[in-house]
């Protein structure tokens, strides 16, 4: 087997070119194979055009070891992948008995009778080796074109995800995979530039052969470390320890950990239950918590009190406090949380009220102003800050802030993290 294996992607579909479908498949493929020591070297996207497909397949086959084609295996006329590859091989399309049986069984499970359009998906180049699709009707296939292993997969994301382990195993029978490893740390409250500067200052001797990468998302920043030597690379573990010390309480967890998931973990460890009282986030905080498996063990109730009347009736907020301080005030969110705790029986919780925009602000409380309360019945803390951005961004960031502040309190971390102290200084 060759020591090095170059992987390229070719994605096909008019819907990708028009923007009707957002390409998530290439990210899925790249993340899957990076952990196998097979990074994607090039990605090309083309529409459902026979000439463009042939041109790009031929070009890729002249330079890479493995070409993974995603899309174009469906039942419609614009699904051209199998036809174009057969033409490049100089082979006819033939109906593969195994694929035909797969389609009949797939249709039967749905109470359908396979028609001509379904059965189009059983025709592949004569030399094709088929790859199982455990949930979809179109099987994948592979051929050798010149010296390149060409693998074609369906474009439906759920089907691709289910097929990737089999695709990886198939590649491994022809090419040596190095077994590289990517370790992911998830952080909150740090931007890419801040994180990079901290690392540059704190770890100036970063080794060149361990790759450092960042993936900015909302609301988390993911920091990735990749070693081609795999999970047991001692230098990788030493760097992870140094990063953990350097970034400290900004680290939420590893892998796919979310802020809600991290908080849930603390709640379970401390045998606590939480509640939420939300105005400007409209139930988003409760939704984030209950989206995590096991939420029923730690979540009691969520209250959405948008209007002032409901804040008073549902949560017992004093009309006099609303009149004196306004609905967006630390006093009001503290009373909202106290009311939610009393009515739900939960030991801890969060409450938020803010001005999401685009209008409704004043010189004293501009759009983006938010007040957050968090904590236990006898230890409610509150804070007012400014979260600038569009309405959806505002809501997502406020929800993350509230969950993180409660997490920090339960773990006895510093009350005011970097992201709030930096705003206070500004």
Biggest pleated-sheet summary: 6 strands, mixed
Task: Provide the CATH top-level class of the largest domain.
Answer: Alpha Beta
State the domain count.
3
Percent in helix: 25-40%
Within the CATH hierarchy, at the fold level, what is the topology of the largest domain? Answer: Maf protein
| CATH architecture type of the largest domain | Alpha-Beta Complex
Integer average pLDDT: 92
How many alpha or pi helices?
16
Number of E-state strands: 17
Structural class: alpha/beta
* Name given to the CATH homologous superfamily of the largest domain: CinA-like
Strand content: 15-25%
What keyword list fits this structure?
single chain, alpha/beta, Molybdenum Cofactor Biosythetic Enzyme, Chain A, Alpha-Beta Plaits, Maf protein, six-stranded mixed β-sheet, five-stranded mixed β-sheet, 16 helices, elongated
Can you offer a commentary on this structure?
The chain has helices spanning 14-18, 25-34, 50-61, 81-89, 97-109, 116-119, 157-172, 192-202, 234-247, 259-269, 284-290, 308-315, 319-325, 330-344, 391-410, 418-425, and strands at 7-12, 40-46, 66-70, 93-95, 123-125, 129-131, 140-145, 148-153, 181-188, 210-216, 220-227, 251-254, 274-278, 299-304, 348-354, 369-376, 379-386. Strand 16 (369-376) and strand 17 form a beta hairpin. The chain folds into three domains: 7-172, 3-Layer(aba) Sandwich (Molybdenum Cofactor Biosythetic Enzyme, Chain A); 181-254, Alpha-Beta Plaits (2-Layer Sandwich), CATH 3.30.70; 259-425, Alpha-Beta Complex (Maf protein). Helix 2 packs parallel to helix 7 (157-172) and helix 10 packs parallel to helix 15. It is built from 16 helices and 17 strands. The model has no long low-confidence stretch (mean pLDDT 92). With 426 residues, the protein is of the alpha/beta class.
């Amino acid at each position: 087997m060759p020591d090095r294996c170059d992987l390229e992607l070719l994605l096909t579909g008019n819907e990708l070119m028009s923007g009707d479908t957002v390409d998530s498949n290439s990210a899925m493929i790249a993340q899957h194979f990076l952990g196998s020591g097979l990074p994607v070297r090039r990605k090309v996207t083309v529409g459902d055009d026979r000439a463009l497909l042939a041109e790009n397949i031929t070009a890729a086959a002249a330079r890479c070891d493995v070409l993974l084609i995603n899309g174009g295996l469906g039942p419609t006329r614009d699904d051209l992948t199998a036809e174009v590859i057969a033409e490049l091989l100089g082979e006819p399309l033939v109906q593969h008995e195994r694929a035909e049986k797969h389609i009949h069984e797939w249709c039967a499970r749905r109470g359908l009778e396979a028609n001509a359009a379904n059965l189009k998906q059983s025709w592949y180049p004569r030399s094709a080796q088929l790859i199982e699709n455990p949930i979809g009707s179109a099987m994948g296939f592979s051929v050798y074109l010149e010296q390149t292993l060409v693998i074609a997969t369906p474009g439906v994301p759920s089907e691709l995800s289910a097929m990737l382990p089999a695709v990886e195993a198939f590649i491994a029978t022809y090419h040596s995979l190095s077994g590289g490893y990517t370790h992911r740390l998830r952080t909150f409250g740090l931007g890419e530039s801040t994180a990079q500067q901290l690392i540059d200052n704190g770890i100036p001797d970063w080794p060149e052969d361990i790759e450092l990468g960042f993936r900015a998302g909302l609301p988390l920043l993911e920091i990735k470390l990749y070693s081609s030597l795999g999970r047991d690379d001692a230098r990788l573990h030493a760097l992870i320890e140094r990063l953990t010390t350097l970034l400290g309480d900004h680290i939420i967890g590893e892998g796919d950990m979310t802020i809600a998931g991290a908080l849930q973990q603390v709640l379970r460890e401390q045998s606590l239950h939480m509640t939420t009282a939300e105005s400007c986030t409209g139930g988003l905080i409760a939704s984030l918590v209950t989206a995590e498996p096991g939420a029923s063990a730690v979540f009691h109730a969520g209250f959405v009190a948008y209007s002032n009347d409901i804040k008073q009736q549902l949560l017992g907020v004093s009309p006099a406090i609303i009149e004196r301080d306004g609905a967006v005030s630390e006093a009001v969110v503290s009373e909202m949380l106290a009311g939610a705790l009393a009515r739900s029986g939960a030991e801890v919780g969060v409450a938020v009220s803010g001005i999401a925009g685009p209008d409704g602000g004043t010189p004293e409380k501009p759009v983006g102003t938010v007040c957050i309360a968090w904590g236990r019945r006898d230890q409610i803390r509150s804070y007012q800050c400014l979260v600038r951005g569009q309405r959806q961004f505002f809501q997502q960031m406020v929800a993350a802030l509230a969950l993180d502040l409660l997490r920090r309190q339960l773990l006895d971390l510093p009350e005011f993290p970097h992201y709030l102290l930096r705003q206070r200084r500004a």
